[in-house]
Structures are given as C-alpha cells and as structure tokens.
Specification:
The chain has about 425 residues and is α/β, with parallel strands linked by helices. It is about 45% helix and about 15% strand. It has helices at about 15-20, 25-35, 50-55, 55-70, 85-95, 120-130, 145-165, 165-170, 180-190, 210-220, 225-240, 245-260, 275-290, 310-315, 355-375, 390-410, 420-430, and strands spanning about 5-10, 75-80, 110-115, 135-140, 170-175, 195, 265-270, 300-305, 320-330, 380-385. It starts with a strand and ends in a 5-residue tail after the last helix. Bound molecules: 5-phosphoarabinonic acid. 5-phosphoarabinonic acid binds next to loops.
Length: about 425
Amino acid sequence: MEQLNVKIGHSAVKTTEATVNQLLPDALAARTHLLNGDAPGSDFLGWVNLPEEVSPDMLAGLKADAARLRGQSRLLVVIGIGGSYLGARMVIEALQSEFAWNERDAKPYVVYAGHTLGEDYYNQLLTLLEHEDYSVVVISKSGTTTEPAVAFRIVKAHLEKKYGKSAAAGRIVAITDARKGALHDIAVKEGYPMYVIPDNVGGRFSVLTPVGLLPIAVAGYDIDRMLDGARAMRRVCLEGSNLEDNPALKYAAVRNALYRSGIKVEMLVSALPNLRYMAEWWKQLFGESEGKDHKGLLPHSLSITTDLHSMGQYVQEGERLMMETFVRVKQPATHVPVPTDEENLDGINYLVNKTLTEINDCATEGTIEAHVSGGVPVVEIEVERIDEYTLGQLIYFFEFACGVSGYMLKVNPFDQPGVEAYKKNMFRLLGKPGF
Ligand code: PA5
C-alpha cells in the first residue's frame, strides 16, 4: 500500500514525542470502544466496517444509475447539507479541474444546492438550469432538513416544468432513510430510484455510502479505487498497535496531547487550492464530533500561500492558541514550467529551473519553519498524490482518527445535539406549527 505518513517532528514546541507516546494506552482504549461498540454512540459505528461491507449489488445499481445520469446531463445538482454533501464535494473538487466548467460536455459539472438559503443563489441556479440539461441527486438522511427540502421543492418544480413530470422523475435519484422521512415518502410516491443511508452511519461519516459514492460516480470518478484506498487504510487503523504503525492513533494522540497542553484551535493547512473542501469536510467531521460539553479543538483551516496574506500575521504573532496540521502532497498530477524571460524585469529568473511544486514546497517549508519558530506546533500528514485511492485513504484515516480522538476526549463523537438549537428558533420565527 502507498503510505500515508503522519509526522510530528515539528510539534516539539508544546509537546514532546514522549508526551504523545504516553497517550498510546488511551488511544488503544478508544480504538477498542470503536471496535467493540461499548461506549456512547455505539449505534453509529457502521462506518468502521463500511468499506468491507459495501454491497456489490448496491454498487452495481449505483454505477448504472450514475451512467444514466451522466448520459443525460451536462449538469448534476447535488442537494444536501452538512454530512449529506461535504464528502462528495471534497472528493469532486479535489479531483476535477478548477476550470471544469469548460469540460461539461465530457462530464457533468456538479453544482450544489440545499446547503444555503441565499435567495440570489437559487435565482442564479434557476437561470443556469434554464439553459442546461441536468439531473438531481437529493440527499437527506432524516429526510426532513429544511434547507435541502426547500431547495428540492424549488429545483423539482423547475425540473418538472422543463421536462414534464414523468421525464423529470427519470432525472432524480434520492438518498435517504430506508423507511421514514418526507424525502423517503416523496421518492416512493414519485417513483424515484432510491438509495439508503444505513441507520448506523451518521451524516459526517457517510461519504463511503451512496451519499458520497453516487455524486462522485456521476462526476466521473472511480469509486472502486476510492473504496480500495479506504479498505487499505482500515486495515492499518485496525491492525497497527503502536503510534509508528498506526497514523490514525498517532494523529489522535498528538491532537489530544496538544489540547491537554492548552492548545484550543487546530488549523488544517494545504498548499493546494483543490483541497479546500477537504478542509470543509474535516471541519464538520471534527467540529460536530468533538465540540461538546464545552470541550474540543476548534477546527479552522488555511489555504496557503493564499491565506498567508490574510491570516499569516495572526498565526505568526497573534495569541498562541493554535496548532497546524499540514496535508502535504508529494507529487502533482501535472507540471507547469516557469518561462525564461531574458529581460528579467520581474526579477524571478532564479525560479526558471524549478517546478511550481518545488516553489510551493519551499513556501510550505518556509511557512512551517516560521510558524514553529513563532510557537505553533505543526503536524504533517503526507500523501504521495491526490487521486481516488489516496482520497479513500484520507477519508478513512480522518474518520478513524476522529472516532479515536473523540473517545480520548471523553465525549460521544457520534451525536450532534447542539445542531438542533438554531432550528428550534428558526421554526418559531417562521411560525412552523408546533414551535
Ligand atoms: O453530520 C450530520 O449528521 C449532519 O451534518 C447532517 O448530515 C446534516 O444536518 C444534514 O442532515 P440530513 O442528511 O438529515 O438532511
């Protein structure tokens, strides 16, 4: 298996390797809870074995539906919020061209809805949908979340007006609960193909269910390779019993050691703009899993070098409350040379024999050096390249590390009671019956 390395060589500022090693028994105990299901949240551990248990029949049907949607669409609208869209978006944005809009004849371009209530966003989306053939994947585990329900009602009405009710039904796939919820009932009544989110998999751990697999397959990426990567990482996470063999235990131990030493914020840092949704997915994963009982590292993110020109000052010299976790990718998929210019008016001829990746790596090294000297502990997670396989590895790695880390923190990593607070107020303000 291609390796995924977790390096904590730069974290010596606030914690030492020895302090982290002392947490190995805690990390192993947390892993035992995940494997034995003997701690709070045990009803939501279906994701642990998911890569091994994904049904071949379900996968075959899903690929057939994906091919059908691809064949009839230049656009795919993915409707969902939180765990019902961030995983798919992370993978698709990591793999597709930043300028994929130009390639929408070859692959459907994916746009998102149901993650916002911004009125102009929907007006702009409807304008776009007027001019393009499109299909819809609507995702909601509960089937009752307001944002995707509103978005689906708007998009469904447009789709039915554009294609007629019966043809529109052939352009919609629903992913929801097996038995209950408004989306389940609509899908049954309208005859939409439906995929199930297993009861024992929470939204933020659901990217390897149809929630992530279907949109990713429609977008044209190899979901088998992604599952292979997740399976390989699952073996490492389940088998490795010391910190050097098990990157997930190591990462969980490091972040808990740093939290106990007074660190309050963890920033996920990448030098590749196509990983920005990895940070969004990661923020939800760790934020919803650990942010409870007034505990937990606040997940934040930096895209470098972009954000060094906005957040860099604070990280270097502001309040000392953060650690950084760099996701480093060794090889780019392509190369772009820096052209020679005889006049050298911009003074950058010294870069001409370097690749952009070398330049970016020097920027990253320089950043790590600067932040460490400024008192910021740094962890590095290193992968060879970004493709479906390594994304599968990273997904499983972060999920497993999150489960371990949450149990080390002594919270239930698999509930999210705090998310309900805003909903009650919103429903009251909107006059929803019963609120
Ligand atoms: O991780 C979670 O459970 C949440 O972020 C949910 O995914 C999000 O609230 C959407 O819920 P649902 O899929 O029920 O619409």
